[in-house]
Fold this protein.
Amino acid sequence: MKSNAAGAAAPRIRIGVSGLGRIGWLFHCEQIFGHPDFELAAVQDPEASRLKEAAERYGVPTYTDLGGMLAGERLDAVVIASPTHLHARMTRDALRAGCHVLLEKPMAINGSQAAGMVRLAARRRRVLAVHMPRRAEAYFQHLCALVRSGYVGRVYHVRVGMYQFAIRNDWQALKRYGGGLLANWGTHAMDLMLALLEDEVTVVFSSMRKVASAGDTEDVLTIALRTLEGAVGIIEINHVSAVNPCYIDVTGTRGTISIAPDSLGQLRVRRVAPGSVHPRVLDPSLASAGRRYPDADVSFEESVLPVDSSRAVNVFTDFARAIRAGSPPLVPASNALRVVRLLHRCRRKAGKVQVTSIFDD
């Protein structure tokens, strides 16, 4: 339990969890239940079997709807881990009930909904944080620290790739619930991209395709971004890929830092050796000397840096700090709003989802 400035123990934050699906149950409930800053006070889900399981596991009151939980319990905060199309209404209800909110990604179906949620949280003076777990990981925090220190010079190109082979046949494969790979994994990728580029995005290109999904949404997508200062970001997400070639590459004027998809515990760096690059004099003639292609004659340093595990951010410790101190959470709602708006631009640019079925062969 935390202590305040006078040394007295701060009361635990009474929190309820709405939505006992994959993330709500496996991540939020389990993390909160053993967290010293929080008391898991209640849970809500429309499925009776899930409520029975929660009552047996955690010994807390259970509710079939969020309104009932908000009215029946004295809550300080709520986790909303429901399907995307329910986020806006549930967040508004929780904020109006005086609760701080930790919201699952993506924040909302569209930018209009998300902006309204941000405004309401500000008016109610409540924390509205969005759960972007990859941002909190030690490898990404370590990567950002290196990039901001100028370790590879001025960054001008970032690539984020997420690949696997999976055929989605759940609600996240349906448009009407806010599904699709752009909203699901694209939210993660865009959040990481914006955290690394730290600049306004001025140009967007995107392409989306449905290859194997059982629903009506995309399972393959490519996004290209250009920032105000000219840096380029490439996002490739493919749920029908036989290979997994990359995760994150950050390239600057002095080298590249890479994180491989199967090696999240280390950062691979290839940098130009100090003092090994010299300006070249332009030869404007049409007859290349010795018929040779020019080269830079540069030396590189290669290293593998173990990820500093202490850099990981505990999402719930961070949320509690934001509630108690009034400081911004790791991912404030304003950041998540920017992601939602950019993803909407990507969908508009891509237009109709192209269909290339894997089952036609």
Observations:
- Residues 218 and 274 are 45 Å apart (CA to CA).
- The radius of gyration is 23 Å.
- Residues 333-350 form the longest helix (18 residues).
- The chain has ten helices and 15 strands.
